[in-house]
């Protein structure tokens, strides 16, 4: 039998790039478990997505990663172009990786994503760049990379340094760091600059040290600035990358003379080190963070406490120091403390007014929780019925103004969804570009929700971006196989979970099961609860009692007959539960197979609707929590005055004196 009979075809999959998506998932999962080693081959995908958006690769261009790891930035460039409606076949991909094993992973990653023309080489980029044409370094339109931090420049032993001579040493025209020094970051950067086409652009991750260290690195930095190559310096949050908790930055450079006229002689500093979601073991960039950073760069815009445009002249005056906080300081203002309020109580009205924008956005009149302080026109108190801190949260959550504002937001969402759902359904098999649908959803969603003024524009766009990212594979399947294909793919996922002995999530929690088999799942849960209750009852009844000769016999203790009856019930419940579980797959398949095109469309759109509503609810809760935190902070600061503390102290001292007198010590 010929091998081609075994070959998997695109039409065999839920969507054409399914194998590549699965391999990317496995690489990411392995990086999660590899800890520090994960950083050697994997850059978190939200960071990659943002960098690709900054670089904005176009059809017909070449993209190069001199430290490509598992190839994620190159693959994301191809996917980005595809999402923008371009033909990814017209994007040339090049990469180099020093580690042979990681290079092999990258090669496999390319093949599984259908990128057969990728030119990936295995060698040390600093010592021996492999992409050479007619005896010169190849030049590329876009360069994207995350080079190893603080890598040694050449051998770190004296003997090895004697004969070490990197190829194309003219790359390092702005200077070199000492041989063996673990400061090759700017050497990688100079290699990238030397590999750019005349109108080329690069974005690279760097440690913060390259921004301000002196000596050779300062001379290199000065040369890059004087030639007007650096376009933006973007500070990122700490603990975003595998293997290091230190914050990193992204440098965006263009070749000499390639900046837009209005950007020449200027550098945009973006301080985004507070833009992150705090995870259990690692921080994450969310879609709204990417939106805020990328849109600020694209508009080359200044924003208070976030970004600032700095002239080359000012950078010269600061001795070419690119420390981000020097130019865009986003440190929060110190918590205000009012001495008068600490002494005699009350909340300063000026602190309440400082939060007015937050309250207005949420529909809260702060005086719904506060009352004027008698004789103190610049101070207010908590309402008399708010007698403890714990009462603040429910009062805010039940506030009519807040509930009305949230209801208006959700009503606008529901109207928007009713208008857009048919557009999503029309994606089914008609060849519509995913990017066109995504742009349409973002534009119309922003137009629908902005008038409510409850969420800022980055959050609004972030909701759609998060929804899109969360369901991207569903949209790709919908485009390739229609609504029935999406439901069938979900069924496959559930069955795979059933067969996975080491599964981390229950197949019963899958959204398809929740919608199709709600009653069936409820029966399973009732049986499981009944069995657990009987297990606990039998265990308690058969536990060996502690010996106590004087203990009275327990007349309510279960008898042998009781225990026997419970065991019989448990056996029946276990048997019924196993039978139910054994028939689960067949029951699910029957429910899926009973769906026609219209039923599948209704199911898919309902699930997608609820996914997006869940994201919207998360943003609403976050905003509400900000308000609660503001009032709780005022309670903690001012509710107990100095006079109260002194009275408690005097009362405690008097009580202690009484005890001592009673003991004859006073």
Quick tags:
666 residues; alpha/beta; 9-stranded mixed beta sheet; 3-stranded antiparallel beta sheet; 25 helices; 51% helix; 12% strand; globular; disordered N terminus
Summarize the structure.
The protein is an alpha/beta fold and 666 residues long. The chain contains 25 helices and 16 strands. Helix 4 (100-112) links the parallel strand 2 and strand 3.
Walk me through the structure:
The relative contact order is 0.07. The chain has 25 helices and 16 strands. It starts with 17 loop residues before the first helix and ends with a helix. It is α/β, with parallel strands linked by helices. It has a nine-stranded mixed beta sheet. A three-stranded antiparallel beta sheet has the order 14-16-15. Strands 4-5 form a two-stranded antiparallel sheet. Helix 18 crosses helix 24 and helix 21 packs antiparallel against helix 22.
Helical fraction: 40-55%
Largest β-sheet summary: 9 strands, mixed
**Helix count?**
25
Low-confidence stretches: 1-16, 33-39
Please specify the SSE layout and strand pairing.
Blueprint: H1 18-34, H2 45-55, E1 62-65, H3 72-83, E2 92-97, H4 100-112, E3 119-122, E4 132-133, E5 136-137, E6 140-145, H5 158-162, H6 185-194, E7 196-207, H7 209-212, H8 216-226, E8 230-235, E9 248-254, E10 266-271, E11 277-278, E12 283-284, H9 287-299, E13 307-311, H10 312-317, H11 324-327, H12 339-344, E14 347-348, H13 349-354, H14 356-362, E15 370-373, E16 376-382, H15 392-397, H16 400-425, H17 434-449, H18 457-470, H19 472-499, H20 511-516, H21 518-542, H22 560-582, H23 584-593, H24 597-638, H25 642-662
Parallel strand pairs: 1-2, 1-6, 2-3, 6-7, 8-10
Antiparallel strand pairs: 4-5, 7-9, 8-9, 10-13, 11-12, 14-16, 15-16
Helix pairs in contact: 1-4, 2-3, 2-9, 9-18, 16-17, 16-24, 17-18, 18-24, 19-23, 19-24, 21-22
